Each structure stands twice: as structure tokens, then as C-alpha cells.
Amino acid sequence: MSWAGDVSSLVDFFSTVLRLSTPIVFAALGGVLAERAGVFNVSLEGCILGGAFGAATGAYLLGTPVGGLVFGILFAAAIGCVLAGLAVGLGINQLVTGIAINILVLGLTSYLARLILGADATSTLPGFAPVAIPLLSSIPLIGPVLFNQDPLAYLMYLAVPLSYWFLYRTPWGLNVRAIGDYPVAADTVGVSVPGVRAICVITSCVLGGLGGCYLVLCQVFVFTENMSAGKGWIALAAVILGRWNPALVFVACIFFAFSEALQLRLQFNNPDVPYQLFSMVPFLASFVALVAFAGRVRPPAAIGTKYVRGGK
Amino acid sequence: MLRAIQGIYMLRPVWAVLLSLLAGAGLIAIAGVNPGEAYAALFGGAFLDYYGLASTLAKMSPILLAGLAVIIPLRVGLLNIGAEGQIYMGGLFSSMAALLLPEMSPVVQVPLCVLAGALGGGLWGLIPGYLKAYRGINEVIITILLNFIAINLVSYVAGGPMMQEGAPYPYSEEIREGLWLPYIMPHTDAHLGVVVGIVLCVVAWFVFRFTTVGFGLGMIGKNPVAATYSGIRVRRNVVAVMFVAGAIGGLAGTFEVLGLKHRLYHLFSPGYGFDGIVVAFLAQLSPLMAPVAAFFLSGLKVGGLIMQRAVGLESTVVEAIQGLVIIFVAASLAFRFDRGNWRRFLERRRLLDAGIAGGITNNSGGRS
């Protein structure tokens, strides 16, 4: 194969990695935020699906991708409100609430999608087109991979450093981390533990929802039942692997996207082998990575517990 | 009075189900269908018709066993989201024992198939149990990842090594009739699996209620530190419980293959493992209530299809209602019966009533 052919196939491959990583990165950043505040957000899977459904509905009803984005964010925020209300407000087990929300969103979106989209479910929805950034996009290899993307991918580039800066360089970030590790201390200095937790959970769900919006508005342009297909769970694995640090979590997401892109290529090159052998790869990679590297992880100390003032 | 209030609290799941059916009626109404008619078709079809009831019982087998596979570890404080994967591994192992082993007398081979299925699910449950106990890795994420691995693995085997020659989509050879589970209702699909499920529920109830093993397990669930101090080997028990739960999940898949499908199909379980989670919460983690919850949920699913044919409503509404059920049941968990609070409340009411009565007599007394 010629050198030029190699480069273009590399560009293809890394563009695929980036496309596959975007929804996982959004969701994983959401996971970091919620877990840093001491709340497991197991409903990320549902948030991605809900965001995708909202995006499809908005784009279908309003006819613009921006309308889709707004609907997707609103739907995900609504999911966040339910999670915050049940897990933070009523103090029901966070894992249980998250699983319950996933099941609800799966059923609700399947039903509502058939009602609203109906026969048009398979027709292509309006979406965002790639925007090439002048100059930067003409850098060989890096340019076409990184700087010829759609707006949501650029938003993802911003979201990673922003969330790092927010968590480690701002007083609000300090509050969030304090609430996740030692809520009594935060409460003592007058930070509202349930308030901050609720905000973090809702933002977390919106981030997950953005991942779903990306799927519909930038990638496939249709809504299908259960289209999140486990991405939320991979994002949660990335949160643990990345040690609840946005930068490392981003690296973990890229690793998962890489394994997914690899399996797609393997599928394509080996049509005679049943494809399921390859579609197992990302999950197997997450599993192996968790077992091999999770080792002595130290999650936020107060995670999973309801904060009760004056409680133990 | 207190007892009556406590009774209302104990019926929380019933109120939650009624509320979710009410919310579901709203969803049905959106589609322009009369909710009363839809529900009549749904429940009439699922519970009052001979063949409908048989389908409900056939569906109840995997759902009940999956429910038990969630309930048992949850009483020990472990959330097993992996029943789905355990079902798949159970189906895989049992159909391998049925199709790949040399032909034996059914008296020998059927138990062998069942054991193989239980072992397959059990090993699949052992992995998260071990990782949780000895490595501290969150069992929720591990079991979910293992689900995806198991589903793809079964699809691969059913579409590759074990695929029937010339099959239009991935499934294995048919298992010979001698190895099928007996049917419990003539001319229907209702097979013995549901009976085994109910028996296992009673056994689980007995173990938790009357044995030291069960007491120790419950203690781990409530307070693992205290359990450690009283000499219970927490880690070993965690691993064992996940193995048993996985084995029960494996039985769900085994009976699905030996009792109903008679082949290893790819994607043969449409999320029964997740239905098990719904059952666990609906039954409030009581093994004795699990059959009731599973019966209701299976009826909802079977009835959904009947309703779709009868009134032309999308049967996916049933999935939405199921989601509402679990959300409302989860929310109802927050409302615990607090005897002291209620007693004080009733006491205050009594005093208030007495005060009012006293005030009236005083007033009337003063005036006269």
C-alpha cells in the first residue's frame, strides 16, 4: 500500500476513534461530576438514551439540529431531576434509583418514539455538519482527524479541560470534591450538601444527554430503540479507570473507543467470522482494564451514602 | 389504629403498582385508546384465558428465577445486575450438555444438562463475587459488562460453532424430545420451570428465616462490620452468594432452553435478567412474595401482546408501564413505617380531640 493510502486509512481510523469516543467522553465527564459529589450516577445509560430520544424528537418536530439539541438537553435534565429527587431528596439507594431510571427510560423512549416518530422513524433527521477549522484542519493527519469535526465534538474538546479546571481550580469544584469526600466538613462551612449534589446530578445527566444528542445529531441521524447500547456502562468503567480525574477519564474513554474502532475494522476485514466475536471486544477490554488496573482505587469517600445532618 | 397504618405501609408495592397503572393509563390515552378497554384486554388475556394463563406461566419461569437471583444477593447487600448474562451462560452450558454430550438416558442427561446450566450461570456470578470480595471492584459495573460479553458469546456460538446447517439466523440444532422439560398444562407451553422456581423461592425463604447460614447472610447485608466481628467470613460468603445467585440465573436460562425454545437461539432472553430486578423490588426482597410479583409482571408482558392485537396499541407501552412500576416502587421505599412517629402523631390527635371536647364542655360550663 502506498504511503498516501496509509495516511488516509489512518485518518479514517482515528476519526472513527474520535467519533466513537465523543458520547462516552460526555457521559464519563457527567459520571465524574456526580461521583465527585458523592452520588453514583448509574442512570448514565438512560441519560444517553433519553438525550438521543429528545434530540430525535426535537429535530423531527422543529426541523433543526439546534431544536434537537435543546430537546435532548431538556429530556436529560428531566431525568436528572428524577434521579436527584429520588436519590438525593428522598435518599433512596442511588444504585437502585439509577437502575430503575434506566428501565423506565428504555420503556418510555421506545413507546414514545413509536407514537411521535411513528412511520418516519427510519427517515434521516436534520443534523450538524462537520465544520472545518481554517488552518488547523490542514495540518496533515492531525488536522482532518481533530479539526474537521461537528460542533458537538468541539464542545467535547472544551468540556474535558473545563471540567478539570472546574474541579481542581475553582472554589465550587472544591465544594463538590469536599461534599463527595467529607460532607460534614462542607456542611459545617455552610455549603448545602443536598443542593450541590442535586445540581451536580442534573448537570451529570445533561452531559450524558449530550452524548445521546451527539449520537443522533452528528452520527446516525435516526433514533433506534435502546441505541445507547451499553455506552453509559462503558463510561462508568472509564470513570473508575480514570480515577475520577477528568483528564485520565478522557484517556480511558479514548482507550475504549480505540478498542471499539479496532473491532469494527476486524469485523469488516473478516466477514466470514461471526461478528459477535468482535462486538464483544469493547466490553471485554473494559472488563480486563478494570480488573487489571482498578487495583487500589480510592473512590470519593462518601459516595453512595445519603447525607444526614447530625447522622453517623 | 397503629396496626392498620402499618398494614397500609406494608402494602406499599400495591399502591405503587396502582399508581403506575394510573400513569400508564395516561400514556395509553395519549395514543388515543381507551385505557379501560386496553387494560381489560391486557389482564383478561393474561390471567383469565387458558392459553393466556399458560403463556403467563411459561414467561414466569425465567422472570421468577431471575428475580430470585437478584433477591438473594441483595439481601446480602450486593446488587446483581448480571442475571441476564447468567441466563445466557446457563442456556449455553445446558444446550452444550444436551447437544454435544453423547446420547444418554434422559434420567441421566436431563439432570446433567440442568447441572451444567447452573454451573455456567454460577461461574458467571462467581467472577463479580470474587472481584467484589477480594478486589473491591463495584459489582454493578462488572455484572453489566459480563452481560454484554455473555450475550455476544452466545450469539457467536449460536451463529458459529453450534449453528444448524443452513439456518436462516443464528440458532443451534434442536434438542431431542427426550430431554425436554415436562409440560404442566396440556397443549400449551407452560413447563415445569415455574414450579422449580416456586420451590426454590420457598427454600430461600426457609434458609433466610430459619437457618444460621441465612441469619449470617442477612447480617452481612445489614452491617458487614458487625458480621466480621461476630466471626462471619464476609468475603467467602459474598463469593458463595454470588455463585448461588448466578446458578439460579443459570437455571432460568436452562429451563428456557430445555422447556420452551428447545434450541440455543441467539438473543434468546429479551431482558429477563432486568425483569428480575423489577420482581425483586416489587416483592420487597421477600422470596415468598417473588412468585406473586413475577406472576403479575409476566402477565403484564403476555397481556401486552394480546392488547396490541385487540386494541391496536403498541405493546411497548407495557415496557413503559414496567418502568413506571419500578420507579414508583423504588420511590415508595422511602416511606418507612415509623412506629414512634405515628404513635406520637396519634397521641397528639387524641389529646387535641380531648382538648376540643374538654374546651367545649368548659365553654358550655362557663356560660351556664
UniProtKB/TrEMBL annotation, chain A:
<keyword id="KW-0472">Membrane</keyword>
<feature type="transmembrane region" description="Helical">
    <location>
        <begin position="196"/>
        <end position="222"/>
    </location>
</feature>
<protein>
    <submittedName>
        <fullName>Simple sugar transport system permease protein</fullName>
    </submittedName>
</protein>
<dbReference type="InterPro" id="IPR001851">
    <property type="entry name" value="ABC_transp_permease"/>
</dbReference>
<keyword id="KW-0812">Transmembrane</keyword>
<keyword id="KW-1003">Cell membrane</keyword>
<feature type="transmembrane region" description="Helical">
    <location>
        <begin position="69"/>
        <end position="88"/>
    </location>
</feature>
<feature type="transmembrane region" description="Helical">
    <location>
        <begin position="234"/>
        <end position="257"/>
    </location>
</feature>
<feature type="transmembrane region" description="Helical">
    <location>
        <begin position="46"/>
        <end position="63"/>
    </location>
</feature>
<feature type="transmembrane region" description="Helical">
    <location>
        <begin position="277"/>
        <end position="297"/>
    </location>
</feature>
<keyword id="KW-0762">Sugar transport</keyword>
<keyword id="KW-1133">Transmembrane helix</keyword>
<feature type="transmembrane region" description="Helical">
    <location>
        <begin position="152"/>
        <end position="168"/>
    </location>
</feature>
<keyword id="KW-0813">Transport</keyword>
<feature type="transmembrane region" description="Helical">
    <location>
        <begin position="13"/>
        <end position="34"/>
    </location>
</feature>
<feature type="transmembrane region" description="Helical">
    <location>
        <begin position="128"/>
        <end position="147"/>
    </location>
</feature>
<dbReference type="Pfam" id="PF02653">
    <property type="entry name" value="BPD_transp_2"/>
</dbReference>
<feature type="transmembrane region" description="Helical">
    <location>
        <begin position="95"/>
        <end position="116"/>
    </location>
</feature>
From TrEMBL, chain B:
<feature type="transmembrane region" description="Helical">
    <location>
        <begin position="190"/>
        <end position="208"/>
    </location>
</feature>
<keyword id="KW-0812">Transmembrane</keyword>
<protein>
    <submittedName>
        <fullName>Simple sugar transport system permease protein</fullName>
    </submittedName>
</protein>
<feature type="transmembrane region" description="Helical">
    <location>
        <begin position="139"/>
        <end position="158"/>
    </location>
</feature>
<keyword id="KW-1003">Cell membrane</keyword>
<dbReference type="InterPro" id="IPR001851">
    <property type="entry name" value="ABC_transp_permease"/>
</dbReference>
<feature type="transmembrane region" description="Helical">
    <location>
        <begin position="108"/>
        <end position="127"/>
    </location>
</feature>
<keyword id="KW-0472">Membrane</keyword>
<dbReference type="Pfam" id="PF02653">
    <property type="entry name" value="BPD_transp_2"/>
</dbReference>
<keyword id="KW-1133">Transmembrane helix</keyword>
<feature type="transmembrane region" description="Helical">
    <location>
        <begin position="317"/>
        <end position="335"/>
    </location>
</feature>
<feature type="transmembrane region" description="Helical">
    <location>
        <begin position="50"/>
        <end position="74"/>
    </location>
</feature>
<feature type="transmembrane region" description="Helical">
    <location>
        <begin position="86"/>
        <end position="102"/>
    </location>
</feature>
<keyword id="KW-0762">Sugar transport</keyword>
<feature type="transmembrane region" description="Helical">
    <location>
        <begin position="238"/>
        <end position="260"/>
    </location>
</feature>
<keyword id="KW-0813">Transport</keyword>
<feature type="transmembrane region" description="Helical">
    <location>
        <begin position="272"/>
        <end position="297"/>
    </location>
</feature>
